[in-house]
Amino acid sequence: MMRDIEPVFYQRVVRLIKNIPKGKVATYGQIAEYAGNRRAAREVSYILHSSSEKENLPWQRVINSKGRISMKPGRGYELQKQLLQDEGVVFDEEDRVDFDKFLWQP
DNA sequence: AACCTGACTTCGG
DNA sequence: TCCGAAGCCAGGT
């Protein structure tokens, strides 16, 4: 499934995501940057899409740079939001997460 | 190879 | 703040 994505990059992404503490969130770009390729946000997305179950990743803790959930209603949005709320993450009236409070700072 | 798509991001108006 | 466009990288057709 992973094929040509740099194995090192892949491993780093997996490790970083597993390190996001409960109740915190990270952005795709943030993970990509810490993994060594700040332009690979879409690859982070791809890794989550393809390996979340296999790697047992807390996939719900990765959201977009706007502080919103990227998945669309009916295709995962509700589940992700519920999982985050269950661990204490708060969404404002604009459906955004306050990075000052919830962004993961390694 | 060409083209489309996506759980992305940045920048300009 | 809010789009739209452009940049980005891989995978699927």
How many alpha or pi helices? 5
CATH architecture: Orthogonal Bundle
Q: What form results from the Cα inertia axes?
A: globular
Report the mean per-residue pLDDT as an integer: 93
Structural class: mainly alpha
- The CATH topology is Arc Repressor Mutant, subunit A
Number of strands: 2
The parts where pLDDT drops under 50 for at least 5 residues are none
Give Rg in angstroms.
13 Å
Approximate helicity band: 40-55%
| CATH superfamily descriptor | Winged helix-like DNA-binding domain superfamily/Winged helix DNA-binding domain
Total of domains? 1
> How are helices and strands ordered from N to C?
HEHHEHH
- Beta content comes to under 5%
Distance between the termini: 28 Å
Provide the CATH top-level class: Mainly Alpha
Description:
The protein has 106 residues and is mainly alpha-helical. The protein has one domain (7-102): Orthogonal Bundle (Arc Repressor Mutant, subunit A), CATH 1.10.10. It is built from five helices and two strands; from the N terminus they run αβααβαα. It has helices at 7-19, 28-34, 41-55, 77-86, 99-102, and strands spanning 26-27, 62-63. It has a two-stranded parallel ribbon. The mean pLDDT is 93.
